[in-house]
Design goal:
This protein has about 140 residues and is an alpha+beta fold. The chain is elongated. It has two domains: about 80 residues; about 55 residues, Head domain of nucleotide exchange factor GrpE (Nucleotide Exchange Factor Grpe, Chain A, domain 2), CATH 2.30.22.10. It contains two helices and six strands. The protein has a three-stranded antiparallel β-sheet. The protein has a three-stranded mixed β-sheet with strand order 2-6-3, with no helix packed on it. This is Protein GrpE.
Length: about 140
């Protein structure tokens, strides 16, 4: 009988050890998966940044056709980004939030609250509610 109890104890120890090893491996895989998602997401954002540059150009040259094409493209890209948990950080008219925004310049702006965001230099994004990239902004004095 004591041999049986001893055998059960050894099996329990092996089970606990394997369970602990499995948990550690799951945590490592989850960390690697998250790192890869962040890497891919940042690459996608560089493409979105290029769309922003084209949009600014279209605005400067007043190209309505290009603006219309960009609007359609933005809607599609935004929809796809939202489907994978990426959303743009709201900025214009908001007050500076150091958890979401990075102030790159302070300017005089009459009729604005102190630390109100006046302009967005680079859009910021959240990935599943966590900051993927801070928004670079200009705020009022």
């Amino acid at each position: 009988m004591s041999d049986l109890i001893e055998g059960i104890e050894q099996l329990r120890e092996k089970y606990n050890k394997l369970s602990d090893e499995l948990y550690i491996k799951q945590q490592e895989l989850e960390k690697k998966r998250k790192e890869e998602i962040i890497k891919v997401s940042k690459n996608i954002l560089s493409i979105v940044d290029q769309l922003d540059v084209i949009n600014r150009y279209a605005t400067e040259v007043k190209d309505k056709n290009l603006k219309n094409i960009l609007e359609i493209t933005y809607k599609q890209v935004s929809s796809q980004l939202n489907s994978i948990g990426i959303e743009e950080i709201q900025c214009k008219g908001q007050l500076l939030n150091p958890y979401l925004h990075k102030c790159v310049q302070v300017i005089e702006s009459f009729g604005r609250q102190k630390e109100e965001i006046v302009e967005v230099i680079q859009k910021g994004y959240l990935l599943n509610g966590e900051v993927l990239r801070y928004a670079s902004v200009i705020i009022a004095k």
